[in-house]
Here is the input.
Amino acid sequence: MFNFISPEDWEFAVKVIQKEFLGAIWDTLYITILSTLFAILIGLPLGIILVTGDKKGIRPVPSFILVIVNGIINILRSVPFLILMILVIPVTRAIVGTSIGTKATVVPLVFAAFPFAARLVESSLREVNPNIIEMAQSMGASPLQIVLKVLIPESVPSLISNATIAFTTVLGYSAMSGILGGGGLGKIAINYGYYRYQTLIMIFAVILLIIVVQVFQTIGTKLAIKSDKRIKN
Amino acid sequence: MITIKDLSKTFETKAGQVEALKNINLTIEDGDIYGIIGMSGAGKSTLVRTINMLERPTSGQVVINDTDIGSLSDKELRSYRRKVTMIFQGFNLLMQRNCLKNVCFPLELAGVPKDEARQKALKLLELVELKDKAKAYPAQLSGGQQQRVAIARALATDPDILLCDEATSALDPKTTNSILDLIRDINKKLGITVIVITHQMSVVENICNKVAILENGSIVEEGTVEEVFANPKSDAGRRLVYPDFNEETIGENVLDSNTHILRVVFNESDTATEPIIAKLAKETGIEANIIYASTKSINNKAHGSMLLTFKTADELNEAIKFLSPVSGITIQEVTKNV
Here is the structure.
């Protein structure tokens, strides 16, 4: 398979790997973790509103609020990430001061990921047995107490596995943001592999991305199982 | 004292209005173990949920010790609910908390300091004989044990009233009895009024002192368990007291229009030693045909019930004359529908 790769290519690839990959892995993790955290920070309250504010929820809100929240989420989730990156450039400039570079990629990533996170939170919270919510109400729990002491704690295993899904999705998006000068493994794969025909470097970057996904998915799954007290052991 | 006045509940569904409860009137005295029994869909669960306003009645009132529960503000209602707690068919324990923390849950809601809550929860777990399971999670417990934890949790806020919504329906007969014993103990020791929702007559016979029979959203019969058992007035009552008595099991020809039926209920266990039907035959020459008989234990007293048929009205009247003076039995002539 590597017959068409010349010894010079090998040498060059090794050099790039030694020089740039450690930083690229760091950038990728930095962007992905930071974006996922912000996405969850915004997505969690939105997901909670969607569940509790429902007409049959524990604290119904005026329906126009749900329409707005649902609308924002659906619109942002419909826009392809490549387009979204360009659309939010003014916002990125306003927040970070520039629209290119590693830090600047976090903004479009958060915009792409928080609606996704909100939906994941919504589905996690909806899994909570409604009879348990009724129990809490029968014991005199306020809506806030139900959210903090029942809905969230009872869905922790599901929230952890969904956070893992969000993380791996953001990781995929972050690789795409290499196009706009965001750092990380995605940038290396595009710059060397696509623009300079260094297939070897591209393959290496992709393998690293696969490893990162594997590691985080494994950790996430383990944590979710470990946190779930419904599993007898 | 709980007074339910002219209470109705109508649900709006896509198929139209459904009247779940129609003009319910009930009085439950302090210290009662009050059974509300009915088939599924009769409205029992809705009725019990109006007592803590998990279901708001469409009209009517629930008054507890002069307080109209429906008029309480959200905040007042929440603190009221600490005094009227509930256990459920599905136990409804928090699956991600251990037993001790499950019992602490209502205390946390009430803002009781952690240490104090822990001490109280441990005491309650001791009361339900599960102190050794304090650190176990609900998934590691059997159904009966889970219900015990749920009972401990329901007692944490020192309630005046305990609502049991089909609390034993998911349990096997042996476990059911142990849970019912526990509820009876709680009623006696702590003086908590208990309202029991069930579809099983055996549960009512076992622990209740009073019973109301609910059918299609209306109360068709109510009274002490002994009264209702000895003389069920409604069709629904008769179906519950004599679940296996119908034309199919008896045979249609036995109950033709010429049959005269007498119900004999043995209220005291002493009468069981008297062979009164044999005496009736010997002393009056009337041969009564026993077409149905059963014995039940109500509040730990044996109650027997028997249906006798006679060929003529004269025989029936003579049998009534013979049996009336016998102590410890109640007799009543009944129509074809029992």
User: Anything to note?
Assistant: Residues 55 and 61 of chain A are 8 Å apart (CA to CA). The mean pLDDT of chain A is 91. The interface with chain B takes residues 129, 131-132, 134-142, 145, 149-150, 153-154, 156-157, 227-232 of chain A (CB under 8 Å).
